[in-house]
């Protein structure tokens, strides 16, 4: 296709020996392929998900084309520049205040009407714009075509077709971006009534004002912050708006009038440039699948069945076999080799104990759960990339509304299955403060990947025949407690009505092998980094406190150590829950730093390898099935790790609110764990 490229002569860069690096803003609707293009151009590894809202904050990356360096800024996916949501505020503030050299607008070619609405707003800015029509391969596969030359002529900016997933057209696109100039086409042809109103508002502004057309639109829409910024009396704008509303009729409002005017222009562009394929308007594969997975009665059972399958594979024969291989390597190969090496070097006994019983037992042992964590994140990655997780949010909307939230809150909660820290950060997408705080308070109840080693250890020791089902029950319980807690908090603390929930359901796609591997690596890398830093430090600290008393004398009996004394102070509080031993108390304290440290701490305290038969036997002897289940419940629900808690403080914007959340979580953990212990004891008596 021929592409009209609009250029402008730029001044030569100063003779500093360095080539100027343009800053390019990457913008578009959610799920339009922005992050895929960003990764392809910058070589970054930002996660790409087939659901809206993957990018919450702007991200920067550097790249070059034919020796010309440039900086690419990936902005959050938005539908409009009207600053309502957090994503819209981040994007619009960057464009207005930081003035990038160019804007690269990514448009989903399979949904031009919705995507071009943002394009029309971008054209009001005094920044060069280049439009990339992405997913052109999907359009062509459906038998359709898009005349990008016609679009370019009508919009007055360069328009190029690309397929970001395949890298098709990307180099030509960036060449056009780097030489793009200001819009050269005819002015946007507004309806004459809108044109008169815009002209009246424009007269209130200085002619040299940057982004004048955009400011006019914001003033007409009644944005108070814009009125105050330009010292314009609201009465003046209200009079112009009232005249426009009267011109359109009694039932019209300014927002609807401006939106309809933009869509009239969009319709002209689509009519001139888009030719639908023969299958347009017919039922697609996505439609047929959605008839089942979003069915009124089948949707929730299907969701739980998918989750059950995931845990059956992760903690069933497949996951257990893989973890066994790692455990045997550590126990039968690594530990004897290190022990022999240290003995041959004549190292003192306490150094051997520190390295073998402390470091290898704590850090090496936790790695036995790495295969199961990889399997879990493989499943989650496939579900996200395929588009199913977006359906899960839609399906759970009804349940969440009972607790005063919407399906949009379920997105951070689902992310909590991976890690609580990014899940809490994802609450930025929620529009009102009450929704955000309520979601932050209940999201830690969703079981993160760091708790998997705890479940794996206790389920393997006390429930070996039903390990997968036991772990699955933890995830179900976390979800149930989150919903019940939300209902309670909504009736007692938060009283604002839930925001409306509108969410795009993306088409189903085959998961990308690269993207699936990327997500697995990112999650596993975080696990490995923790193992090499936090878990290592905790293991050394636990070993030291376990082998020395308050006088810093080496003790032969660990019950006389500093650690035992600390644990005995806390143990009586935990006794009603069935695990009132000092070892369990110390392990829970270590879990405040990182949840994986619970298992490594128990291994160090008992002096055996994680995953070994000896540790399973000790856990089986130290806990009953009832107390073991109660211990898992407490680990599921009590305060998240330090990193997550620091994020909660930041996102809540208040240490007071964060402490309230922590107290609520500890109280909930204690109550539910006590109930689980009593019910389990009763069940054991009856059975």
Structural class: mainly alpha
* Arithmetic mean pLDDT: 81
Give the helix proportion (percent range). Answer: 55-70%
Binned strand content:
5-15%
Q: Termini distance?
A: 74 Å
Q: List segments where confidence is low: pLDDT < 50 over at least 5 consecutive residues.
A: 1-17, 47-54
What topology, given as strand order, has the largest sheet?
A: 2-3-1-4-5-7
Outline of the structure:
Mg(2+) binds at residues 39-40, 42-43. With 687 residues, the chain is mainly α. The chain has helices spanning 34-42, 86-97, 112-122, 136-141, 148-155, 170-178, 192-202, 212-220, 224-229, 234-248, 254-273, 285-293, 299-315, 317-344, 349-366, 370-386, 388-401, 407-415, 420-425, 433-442, 452-462, 467-492, 513-532, 534-547, 562-574, 582-591, 597-606, 613-622, 625-637, 642-652, 655-686, and strands at residues 23-28, 59-65, 68-74, 102-108, 129-134, 145-146, 159-161, 274-275.
């Amino acid at each position: 296709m021929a592409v009209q490229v609009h250029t402008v002569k730029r001044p030569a860069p100063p003779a500093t020996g360095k080539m100027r690096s343009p800053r390019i803003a990457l913008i578009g609707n959610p799920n339009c392929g922005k992050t895929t293009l960003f990764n392809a151009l910058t070589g970054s590894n930002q996660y790409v998900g087939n659901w809206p809202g993957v990018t919450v904050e702007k991200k920067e990356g550097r790249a070059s084309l034919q020796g010309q360096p440039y900086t690419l800024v990936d902005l959050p996916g938005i539908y409009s520049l009207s600053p309502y949501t957090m994503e819209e505020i981040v994007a619009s503030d960057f464009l207005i205040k930081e003035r990038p050299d160019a804007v690269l607008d990514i448009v989903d070619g399979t949904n031009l009407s919705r995507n071009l609405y943002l394009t029309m707003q971008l054209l009001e800015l005094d920044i060069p714009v280049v439009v990339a029509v992405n997913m052109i391969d999907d359009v062509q596969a459906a038998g359709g075509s898009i005349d990008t030359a016609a679009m370019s002529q009508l919009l007055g900016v360069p328009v190029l077709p690309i397929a970001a997933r395949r890298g098709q057209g990307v180099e030509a696109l960036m060449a056009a971006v780097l030489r793009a100039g200001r819009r050269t086409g005819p002015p946007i042809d507004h309806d004459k009534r809108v044109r008169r109103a815009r002209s009246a508002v424009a007269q209130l502004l200085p002619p040299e004002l940057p982004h004048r057309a955009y400011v006019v639109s914001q003033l007409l829409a009644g944005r108070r912050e814009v009125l105050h910024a330009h010292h314009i009396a609201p009465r003046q704008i209200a009079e112009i708006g009232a005249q426009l509303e009267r011109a359109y009729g009694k039932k019209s409002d300014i927002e609807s009038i401006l939106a309809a005017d933009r869509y009239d222009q969009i319709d002209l562009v689509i009519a001139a440039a888009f030719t639908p394929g023969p299958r347009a308007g017919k039922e697609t594969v996505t439609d047929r699948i959605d008839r089942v997975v979003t069915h009124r009665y089948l949707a929730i059972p299907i969701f739980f069945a998918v989750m059950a399958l995931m845990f059956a594979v992760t903690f069933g024969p497949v996951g257990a076999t893989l973890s066994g291989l790692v455990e045997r390597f550590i126990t039968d190969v690594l530990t004897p080799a290190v022990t022999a090496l240290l003995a041959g070097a004549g190292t003192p006994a306490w150094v051997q104990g520190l390295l073998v019983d402390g470091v290898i037992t704590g850090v090496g042992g936790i790695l036995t759960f790495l295969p199961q964590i990889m399997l879990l994140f493989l499943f989650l990655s496939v579900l996200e990339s395929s588009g199913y997780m977006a359906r899960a949010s839609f399906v759970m909307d009804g349940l969440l509304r009972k607790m005063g939230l919407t399906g949009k809150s379920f997105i951070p909660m689902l992310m909590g299955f991976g890690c609580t820290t990014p899940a809490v950060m994802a609450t930025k997408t929620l529009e009102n403060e009450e929704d955000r705080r309520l979601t932050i308070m209940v999201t830690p109840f969703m079981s993160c990947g760091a708790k998997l080693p705890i479940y794996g250890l206790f389920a393997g020791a006390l429930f070996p025949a039903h390990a997968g089902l036991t772990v699955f029950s933890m995830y179900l319980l976390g979800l149930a407690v989150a919903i019940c807690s939300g209902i309670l908090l909504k009736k007692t603390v938060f009283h604002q009505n839930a925001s409306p929930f509108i969410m795009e359901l993306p088409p189903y796609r085959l998961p990308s092998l690269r993207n699936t591997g990327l997500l697995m690596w990112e999650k596993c890398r975080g696990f490995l980094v923790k193992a090499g830093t936090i878990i290592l430090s905790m293991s050394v600290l636990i070993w030291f406190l376990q082998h020395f008393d308050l006088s810093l004398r080496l003790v032969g009996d660990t019950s006389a150590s500093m650690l035992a004394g600390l644990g005995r102070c806390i143990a009586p509080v935990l006794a009603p829950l069935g695990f009132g031993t000092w070892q369990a108390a110390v392990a829970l304290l270590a879990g405040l730093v990182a949840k994986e440290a619970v298992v490594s701490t128990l291994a160090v305290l008992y002096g055996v390898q994680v995953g070994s038969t000896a540790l399973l036997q000790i856990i089986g002897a130290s806990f009953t099935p009832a107390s073991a289940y109660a211990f898992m419940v407490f680990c599921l629900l009590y305060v998240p790790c330090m990193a997550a808690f620091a994020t909660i403080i930041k996102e809540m914007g208040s240490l007071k609110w964060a402490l309230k959340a922590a107290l609520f979580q500890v109280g909930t953990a204690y109550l539910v764990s006590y109930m689980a212990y009593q019910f389990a004891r009763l069940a054991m008596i009856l059975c």
